[in-house]
Amino acid sequence: MVTRILNSSLMVFVTVGDFFSILGGKQMSIIDELKWRGAINQQTDEAGLADLVNEKAVGLYAGIDPTGDSMHIGHLIPFMILKRFQLAGHRPYIVIGGATGSIGDPSGKKAERKLQTMDQVRHNQDCLTAQMEHLFGQDGSFKIVNNYDWLSKLSLLDFLRDFGKLFNVNTMLNKEIVASRLEVGISYTEFTYQILQSIDFLHLYKHEDVQLQIGGADQWGNITSGIDLIHRQEGSDAKAYGLTIPLLLKADGTKFGKSEGGNVWLDPEKTSPYEFYQFWINTDDRDVVKFLKYFTFLSQDEIQQLADAVAAHPEKREAQTRLAEEVTEFVHGHQAVVEAQHITKALFSGDVADLTANEIEQGFKNMPAVTVTTEKQSLVEWLVDTTKIEASRRQAREDITNGAIRINGEKVTDPTAEIDPTSAFDGKFVIVRRGKKRYFLARVQ
């Protein structure tokens, strides 16, 4: 089989068996690359998997349950690994858990999940499918499947006779995801989750030639259960493998994936591309090289150069800027990067006049905001009575006279000036800056 690897304008054709990532002038297999990136926690058979990925285009999968209508950046981690396999010429499958999502994975949970309606599950499926198609492309080199398609066809008797009989309760109880819940209790519904996930692996192994499952560190028990099921049904020599990814911690010891405002979502309606970009820009110097390895497709040489820049000139934040550019483009596209950088530059310099209404919506999302009418008004009255940006008319006139007030990026020094809320930004917004850094947004209705 022949695959192609795209790197900027360079196109190289290689056989899968001879595939190597060219990183820093060194030939590196896909497994070695993952090791260098610090992206492997455990493997069920390291030598066997290393041989397999050099022999053929391997079918592999990672799953996600539709418990929400968007992924956040914590979900992105295993799918970055899947993407690397895709670029290396392998065959990624994404399992949307239409069935398991209606049950609830106990992994990482201290209590039972709240069951969702099937309508909500189907809505979430559609949203996650759209996100995956954006991340993995639509060139036919990957496939999205839904485990509802096969699990929903199992009768209770089939489930108990064909699968339940093959799982030892003592072994299931010893799995970390179950053992951690025994003190507080776990329902039979969630207890059987590992059986359903095991059936997924078996189904994909038999019908799609999928031999590798990838997941987070907390999925080790579920993955090994699937491999055990394959060996029981297909023979002990069946080539099925598991690979898990380490729990990603920040330098301060906290779990990666959240900002002060909560989850950082891939859905631009939940987390704007500008906010997404800013999350990565604000990465700690101690974490930025690790995140470059995890979340970008930059080469070893490129990442080393950025690591050297962090050590020599951390104040320039070159590594953070590159990280933000790469991840934002991967998730939201190049235009989102351009807009995020435009907003960042405008807010830093105060030159906001050239921002579009969409950029204002993103950049000022979390800044103080008020709603105003389209009525023209004395600027002093507008600042005091309408928006309450200023505490008194005296203070408003003083700030205007001293040049401390900017309206839509323009300094206003005339205390008798009038304001027209519809004069800029398609008549939707007025941006007020008081002093050097305090911004306020007025939404025009």
UniProtKB/TrEMBL annotation:
Catalyzes the attachment of tyrosine to tRNA(Tyr) in a two-step reaction: tyrosine is first activated by ATP to form Tyr-AMP and then transferred to the acceptor end of tRNA(Tyr). Pfam families: SYY_C-terminal, tRNA-synt_1b. One of its GO terms (cellular component) is cytosol. Belongs to the class-I aminoacyl-tRNA synthetase family. TyrS type 1 subfamily. Keywords: Aminoacyl-tRNA synthetase, ATP-binding, Cytoplasm, Ligase, Nucleotide-binding, Protein biosynthesis, RNA-binding. A motif ('HIGH' region) lies at residues 66-75. This is Tyrosine--tRNA ligase. GO terms for biological process: tyrosyl-tRNA aminoacylation. It comes from Levilactobacillus acidifarinae DSM 19394 = JCM 15949. NCBIfam families: tyrS. Residues 378-440 form the RNA-binding S4 domain. PROSITE patterns: AA_TRNA_LIGASE_I, S4. L-tyrosine binds at residues 61, 193, 197. It comes from the Bacteria. It is found in: Cytoplasm.
